[in-house]
Design brief:
- This protein has a 5-stranded antiparallel β-sheet with strand order 1-5-4-3-2.
- The chain has about 325 residues and is largely without helices or strands.
- The chain folds into 2 domains: about 1-220, no CATH class; about 225-314, no CATH class.
- β4 (about 265) and β5 (about 270-275) form a beta hairpin.
- It is globular and about 60 Å long.
- It has helices spanning about 10-25, 125-135, 165-170, 275-280, 305-310, and strands spanning about 225, 240, 245-250, 265, 270-275.
- It contains 5 helices and 5 strands.
- The longest helix is centred in the N-terminal third of the chain and has 14 residues, at about 10-25.
- Bound molecules: heme C (5 copies).
- One heme C binds near residues 81, 95 and 130.
């Protein structure tokens, strides 16, 4: 449901620069025009999903991360690209957040001017900004504050991406050191992960649809307030549980906001739809513990438009 902005096409010079850098770095497999099924098992743990940026699957198989070693630090741990037990980001109210959070301006859905939008829209809240810290393409996927091991901590990284810190403090032990710290953009990871060969021609899965950018006009609105008057007779279902900061569709009735339940976040502006309303970045089993995760990190299966019908009465 998201499509990539066209404005992020690389300049010819940038592409040629990358091709040149890459030729020097390592020989790559021949270009192919096919999309490659994921090598992750997508079950059991976030470590077995595409959110494992170290790239080694927690259990068995998985892609070999060496291909990426020149382009991101391999911290050899799964959680650390997003969380840290100590030295977390104090500038944002996200769980033990380890990522650099730049202050960006987003083009929100309401700017499209659709006549049917009735609810107030505010800039994306923190439960979207966490995702956007990688998916908007402005911050390197490995730009973190506190690296594994002691002493590799730089509080200035909370809001500023410091390439010197990322280079100096980390050596990839399982392959070459990173010479670039790539973002999810056409000149970054998509230089290989594009349709067809891609400028870097590496026979890699097409990630174009996942590079959301800062233009959110073509995405389901986030930072949009859920109607207070929802329920029977309206276009919206009323979430049965409403806590101070979270409202959720408690489908199993256990009084807890489970990973597999669509939710709304209240960060001071009322209950709002954010990226994490529909997605859980750790993966949610589709049919009980151990089963394969719902596709695309969705909280509920979207078969039969299940995600949409959690909120919308249509
Ligand atoms: C790609 C980024 C990413 C990775 C990797 C990741 N998380 Fe998270 N995690 C998040 C985000 C984003 C949230 C906040 C979700 C929200 O807004 O509700 C979160 C929330 C949490 C929470 C609190 C809320 C909840 O969902 O339970 C815990 C606990 C947690 N993560 C643990 C972990 C552990 C342990 C690992 C590694 C095994 C891990 N995470 C890996 C992104 C990540
Ligand atoms: C640390 C960086 C990072 C963070 C934070 C992050 N992602 Fe991702 N995400 C990636 C990468 C890298 C991929 C794989 C390549 C791609 O899709 O561009 C990915 C893939 C995905 C996919 C496609 C999965 C598939 O199997 O096809 C979805 C959906 C997604 N992310 C949603 C989210 C959401 C929602 C959040 C926040 C709750 C989030 N991501 C946070 C880096 C991140
Ligand atoms: C030099 C080319 C190249 C670059 C640059 C590159 N990758 Fe890859 N990547 C590959 C190849 C080749 C594979 C293995 C084939 C495949 O699964 O697409 C791969 C696999 C992956 C996978 C696993 C796909 C799956 O589901 O099995 C993820 C996730 C990924 N890369 C993320 C990234 C991220 C994030 C970046 C940017 C920091 C990046 N890659 C940059 C070439 C590249
Ligand atoms: C209202 C629910 C909802 C919200 C909010 C939402 N998504 Fe999604 N997202 C979905 C659904 C449903 C899919 C699966 C679409 C499909 O399978 O074609 C999806 C797919 C994706 C994908 C995979 C690419 C694609 O187009 O299939 C990414 C990446 C992603 N979402 C990231 C995000 C991020 C980042 C945010 C916040 C800016 C976000 N999503 C907000 C429902 C949502
Ligand atoms: C977490 C709750 C939630 C989920 C899940 C959800 N939506 Fe929405 N959606 C909203 C809210 C709130 C609005 C804003 C309504 C308004 O302004 O009147 C909205 C608006 C819309 C609009 C109207 C846009 C416009 O310009 O008027 C469409 C179309 C839409 N959603 C489609 C979907 C689809 C398709 C899905 C499933 C992929 C989905 N929604 C999932 C809450 C949700």
């Amino acid at each position: 449901m998201h499509s990539a902005p066209r404005s992020t096409l690389p300049t010819l010079a940038a592409v040629l620069g990358l091709v040149f850098a890459c030729t020097l770095a390592a020989p790559l497999p021949a270009a192919a025009d096919t999309d490659i099924p994921t090598k992750f098992s997508n079950r059991g743990s976030v470590g077995n999903t595409r959110h494992n940026l170290s790239q080694r699957q927690v259990s068995g198989g998985g892609p070999t991360g060496q291909t990426m070693d020149s382009y991101r630090n391999d911290y050899e741990e799964v959680c650390v690209y997003c969380h840290t037990p100590h030295g977390a980001n104090r500038s944002v109210a996200a769980p033990l957040w380890n990522r650099t959070m730049k202050v960006n301006t987003y083009q929100t859905y309401d700017l499209l001017g659709s006549a049917s939008i009735t609810q107030p829209v505010t800039p994306p809240g923190i439960n979207s900004l966490t995702c956007l810290s990688c998916h908007d393409g402005t911050t390197a996927v490995d730009s973190i504050i506190n690296m594994p091991g002691s002493g590799r901590y730089n509080p200035a990284q909370e809001t500023v991406e410091n390439t010197a810190f990322l280079n100096a403090e980390w050596d990839n032990r399982r392959g070459p050191d990173a010479t670039a710290h790539m973002t999810l953009t056409a000149t970054g990871c998509l230089a290989c992960h594009a349709s067809g060969a891609g400028p870097l021609g590496a026979n890699a899965t097409d990630f174009t649809a996942f590079a959301i950018g800062t233009d959110l006009r073509n995405d389901h609105p986030v930072g949009i307030r859920f109607p207070a008057a929802a329920g029977v007779g309206t276009d919206f279902k009323d979430p049965p549980r409403k806590e101070a900061r979270l409202a959720y569709f408690d489908t199993n009735g256990n009084g807890r906001a489970d990973a597999g339940e669509v939710r709304l976040y209240n960060t001071g502006e009322g209950y709002e739809v954010e990226c994490a309303s529909c997605h859980d970045p750790h993966g949610v089993p589709s049919a009980g513990p151990g089963s394969v995760f719902n596709p695309t990190f969705l909280r509920v299966s979207n078969a039969g438009s299940g995600v949409c019908l959690s909120c919308h009465t249509k």
